[in-house]
Amino acid sequence: MAKPSFLPLMFALLSATFGVILSAKYSNITIDQSVLLALKLDITHDPHNFLATNWSISTSVCNWIGVICGSKQHRITALDLSSMDLTGTIPSQLGNLSFLAWLDIGDNNFHGSLPIELADLHRLEYLNFGNNNLDGKIPYWLGYFAKLQSLYLYGNNFDGVIPFTLGNLSKLEMLNLGRNQISGRIPDSLFKCKELEFLSLYNNSLEGNVPTEIENLTLLNTLYLDGNYFKGEIAPAIGNLISLVTINLSYNNLTGIISYFLSCFVNFKAYFLYLKNFIGVIPSTLGNLSKLKKLSLFNNDLKGVIPITIGNLSNLEIFYLISN
Predict the structure, then answer these.
(1) What homologous superfamily is domain 21-320 in, according to CATH?
(2) What is the percent of the chain with per-residue pLDDT over 70, rounded to a whole number?
């Protein structure tokens, strides 16, 4: 008796398997395409016709402007619509871009709140909603993006408090919440983000003391707390931030003796230093900040003479002393 041949059966199985894989591949990218088409429908103004002329089903979504697809999964991994002058809202369908690692819609005119469906974008590493007209509370679910390294929400109309869940972002390096309507205190949990290098909270309505826990951010090189309602003396712990190159504490209700404050920065490597509401005389130790390029001490209550050691600041380009 002749042995039955398994080749036709094997070929049929392989063909079916390949067909399923191919079908799944294209159905998934079709999902991504439908998401962007939903976004396009929510755009009410596209003055440069970026999307109107480019986002067309006649071409692959991976070739659309602002879109990058991963070569392995053939799914959208990056969406960059920054600085296109787009006006519109963010659709809930955007949360279906399950392979998205980079999302940048900064410098546009998006308005409304952030839909909770965006919480499903668990692969995000970079998120920029800066310079739009978004409003509502800063979503608590932003703290669940375990891979997030950069978060930009500056220049919007977010209000309420900084959610404590942001302290879960153990890989966060850049955080900019400046120019919003955020109130309350800086949550202590935020100082668990020990990878932070850039922290900007300027021009909000934050209050209270600058927490001593800020010393935990040992990698911090840029700190903007200006334009808030912080009060009291600055804890010496801030002097432990030896990586700082830029610090702006002006336009708050902070007080203190400038010589005491500067003595905290024995190892300070600042290039830019902005202070306000301090009293006393300018200490000679200021001349030790050899890398200083910009020094702003206007609107303080400083007395005495300018120390001769200022001449040691060979890199100094700007020095403001008015209104003392």
Answers:
(1) Ribonuclease Inhibitor (3.80.10.10)
(2) 85
Distance CA 101, CA 94 (A): 13
Task: Name the residue ranges covered by the structural domains of the chain.
Answer: 21-320
In this prediction the pTM is 0.86
**Exposure class string for 112-130: b at 16+ Cβ within 10 A, else e:** eebeeebbbbebbbbbbbb
**pLDDT tens digits along 229-251:** 999 887 777 777 888 888 888 88
Cα 140 from Cα 279, distance rounded (Å): 40
In whole angstroms, give the CA distance from residue 52 to residue 305: 64
Report how far residue 105's alpha carbon sits from residue 39's, in angstroms, rounded to the nearest whole number: 12
The answer, yes or no, to whether residue 279 has pLDDT greater than 80, is: no
Q: How far is CA 320 from the centre of its chain?
A: 30
**H-helix segments, 144-291:** 258-263
Compute the distance between CA of residue 258 and CA of residue 281 in angstroms, rounded to an integer.
7
Measure the CA–CA gap between 113 and 136, rounded to whole angstroms: 6
Residue 268: its pLDDT value, please?
62
Parallel, antiparallel or unpaired: strands 229-233 and 205-208? parallel
The answer to whether residues 199 and 217 touch, using CB atoms and an 8 Å cutoff, is: yes
Q: What is the dihedral angle through the alpha carbons of 247, 251, 254, 259, rounded to the nearest 10 degrees?
A: 60
Query: pLDDT per residue over 18-75, tens digit each?
Result: 443 434 444 578 999 999 999 999 999 999 999 999 999 999 999 999 999 998 888 9
Separation of alpha carbons 295 and 303, rounded Å: 17
DSSP 204-219: SEEEE---GGGGG-TT
User: In this structure, are strands 229-233 and 222-224 parallel, antiparallel, or unpaired?
Assistant: unpaired
